[in-house]
Amino acid sequence: MSGAITVAEKRHFLRWFLANYQLQSREAEMLMRYIMTRENVLRRVHFVENFRQLPRVIVVSTTCVQVAPFRYYRRNKPVSTDVEQAFLDLYQHPDDDVYIGLYFKDRSTSAAYAAVLEEAATAELEPAVREMIAMQAEWLLDQLTYRYERSKLMAAVDEALDRGDREAFLAASQRLIEFDEALLAPSNTSA
Length: 191
Hints:
The structure is a single chain. By secondary structure, the protein is of the alpha/beta class. It folds into 2 domains: 7-121, 3-Layer(aba) Sandwich (hypothetical protein tt1805); 129-184, no CATH class. It has 7 helices and 4 strands. It has a 4-stranded mixed β-sheet, covered by helices on one side. It is elongated and about 80 Å long. The model has no long low-confidence stretch (mean pLDDT 87).
């Protein structure tokens, strides 16, 4: 994704999409045509592939895939298959972002689709999800640092062995043992 997608680009894509694919739901097609003709709505539309945890999502499928024809997700509300409900919500809340997920046969190789795809902003994620992602990233960095430091110590042991240097081997081995023991030692924090 490069920068914000313009209203004209979104409109052009929807025109192309509706000309080349038949939607499973006629009502969903009418909703897409409505979105395409409303500039104020198109400004708030974002085409995304990963729409979990987003506040308002419309999922539409074409006849060439076996996915539910239409789904409408609104945060803290039950999933709906009612296109009219999605239309009314768009109409009543024109200033809220809406994320659209499309399922069609060539979506993974479609240049037209790739041109309008956006990543969901991290700010849109639930706080618990953001915290989990941060914890996983921290754990991954710790693992990479550990592996890097340990590989350096192992290389020193190997190098001492290759040179036949007993004292360097013993010193490098001792540093490696201490490194491993420090990692396995219980932390000094009490539960």
